[in-house]
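#lab-general

N.A. 3:47 PM
ok so I finally got the sequence cleaned up, no stray characters, all 353 residues accounted for. can someone with queue access submit it? mine expired

B.Y. 3:52 PM
send it over

N.A. 3:53 PM
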Amino acid sequence: MSSASSEDVRPARPGAFPSPDEVEVRAPSRVHITLIDMNGSTGRRDGSVGFAVDEPGLRLSLSRGDTLRCEGTADAAQAARVTSAIRHAASALGVSEAVHARLLGPVPAHCGLGSGTQLRLSALRGLAELGGRTLSDRELVALSGRGGTSGIGVHAFSRGGFLVDGGHRVRDKGAFLPSRFAEGVPVPPLLYSRMPPEHWGVVLAVPAGVRGLEGAAEKDFMTRHTPLPLPAVQAVTHTVLMGLLPALEEGDLPAFGHCLTALQDIGWKQAHWRREELRSWRPLLDLMCAQGAAGGGLSSTGPLVYAVYDRTVHHGAELAERVRAGARRAGMRLTSLITTNFGRPAAVGHSEE
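B.Y. 4:20 PM
back already:
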């Protein structure tokens, strides 16, 4: 059975197709810049800013089988995540979970890349198309149960690029909760979507020995740190609306990077940088900027640190090596360090015998 060629890959969009023998879903990861309104006094809460990245990208192949089997996973935990996503998708779609799954391109979990959301969406999209059905974006999001806090992950899957969502009405979501504790809450409306200029690149560094918050720990952190003071929320909103968005529209990378860095010291992102396990990693962002990046920050609950840079000025591999060398000199051990592109939407490939 051959894998899908580049000509076979198309954006994941509505439409009816013959039932294929194998489906491969390719999805971007996402960087979560910040939650906007963690005060809620205006009648809305949450709201998010973020963007998709091509690498590390998720690639999940599904083909029919007699029972659910997983290949290509690095360990039992990763296999369990894939199995859980497929079982959730099968239940949501009302179809058999008897498929052969191959994880061709894994995304590291619990580091700030949104791997859980992308895996769940990919399993839903792939399993549906394996049965000859292509889900609309609305159906996909509704079946996924994601988007209860941030909509960046689900919108990154369908749109790619740079994204801003408008959060939730307080009457739809009565408390500040992470997405996994807010199933049934409507997906936030997408307010802004744009692909940044081609010459803008992204550098991603994952500190060693640190994990992002998840489950009960994330819920507890959100409960303890909300509501934020209204002036802090207003500062975040102002920086996004009158800083990030105009800079992107005008192609002003230095101003865009400056705003990303400024967001680290206000509102929700400031609360995360004050966590004991993250405080010593703030100099990593300073190091990235000293080596040529325009600015950046912490993705989601961490530990991923990202920055943006100009490809016409800096070669990606050389920039990464300078950051790696600087981190080594400073005693900062990294699990991974790559340069990548702003991400395109998820795509689906079919192959038939």
